[in-house]
Amino acid sequence: MIVLIDNGHGIDTAGKRSPDGRFREYLWNRWIAADVCARLLADGIETRLLVPETNDIALSTRVRRANKVCTEAGAANVLLVSVHANAAGDGSRWMNAQGWSAYTSPGKTKADTAAECFYDAFERAFPDRKIRRDYSDGDRDWEANFTILKNTKCPAVLLENFFYDNREECSWLLSPYTQYRIVSAICDGVKRYAAL
Questions:
Q1: What is the pTM of this model?
Q2: In which domain, by residue range, is 34 found?
Q3: Contact (Cβ atoms closer than 8 angstroms) between residue 26 and residue 56
Q4: What percent of the chain has pLDDT over 90?
Q5: Which of 14, 114, 124, 179 is the most buried (most CB within 10 A)?
Q6: In this structure, are residues 156 and 102 in contact, taking their beta carbons and an 8 Å threshold?
Q7: pLDDT in tens, 61-72
């Protein structure tokens, strides 16, 4: 299996920061993505960073890069994980939303199976935090027509790792220990999926 880690957004993406400016999503996503890649590689799982650049890379380019790997390795042998942190507002003021969630494209696909593995991992890692679920289609993940989810040939899951425009969660997300726990949970989710 090849795991593609997509670190969302770039240094030039407008907004995408906490109201106090301490949290910059593009940077946080890159910290998490780099750590996930390093840990999975150390555990013998072939892992590639989809976007090594600092600037924002167009979604069409991200999809093209992922699909190239799918063509070479076979789409069934590839899993794409898009790393994000969530926001409820436009970054101008603190909001109350909180919690972790995962998204897949609409319909029943192998991505739903992968998302269930991530839900199991995050529920185990964060029993003290809110886990956001949507059971409308019979499983826990949320469904959306995000380009990175619907246009990639392989199963793709987008992880929204808590809310950076919630004052408490923002401070918590900036803690190195929290980041370590999030990376561990993402790696656990990948390993659960790989073991199926």
A1: 0.97
A2: 2-194
A3: yes
A4: 97
A5: 114
A6: no
A7: 999 999 999 999
Q: Cα(55)–Cα(45) distance, rounded to whole angstroms?
A: 27
Tokens 């998302």 locate to 115
The domain tally of the chain equals 1
Neighbours of 60 (CB within 10 A): 10
Is residue 93 within 8 Å of 18, Cβ to Cβ?
no
Contact 55, 132 (CB under 8 A): no
As separate numbers, helices (DSSP H) first and strands (DSSP E) second, the chain gives 6, 6
- Please choose, from the candidates 52, 72, 73, the residue with its C-alpha nearest in 3D space to the C-alpha of residue 62: 52
Please report the pLDDT score of residue 100 as a whole number.
98
The C-alpha atoms of residue 78 and residue 62 are separated, in whole angstroms, by 14
d(CA 126, CA 79): 23
CATH code for the domain of 42? 3.40.630.40
Element (DSSP H or E) covering residue 143? strand 142-143
